[in-house]
Structure to design on (86 residues):
């Protein structure tokens, strides 16, 4: 499954970013560590052998992360604001 990063915002209370990612017809939230080098427009693909592991198409690097699935874009943006400001 492929996904594209739509938006990246730094969390205020922890060293992490929250991403809005488009997968198919839905949007998902994805929390990543601050050291992971991802930006809006980057494409991700799931690793077929390991659940929760993603490959960055730009660099080929693997990293672990889970999606909070199945939002509309407006729902994803609202949830993003709640996560970032909590």
């Amino acid at each position: 499954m492929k996904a594209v990063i739509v938006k990246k915002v730094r969390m205020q209370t922890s060293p992490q970013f929250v991403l809005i990612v488009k997968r198919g017809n839905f949007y998902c939230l994805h929390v990543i560590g601050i050291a992971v080098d991802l930006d809006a427009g980057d494409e991700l693909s799931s690793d077929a052998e390991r659940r929760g592991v993603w490959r960055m198409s730009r660099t080929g690097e693997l990293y672990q992360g889970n999606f909070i699935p199945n939002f509309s874009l407006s729902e994803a943006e609202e949830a993003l604001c709640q996560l970032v400001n909590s």
Summary: The first strand starts at residue 2 and ends at 10. Residues 71 and 78 are 10 Å apart (CA to CA).
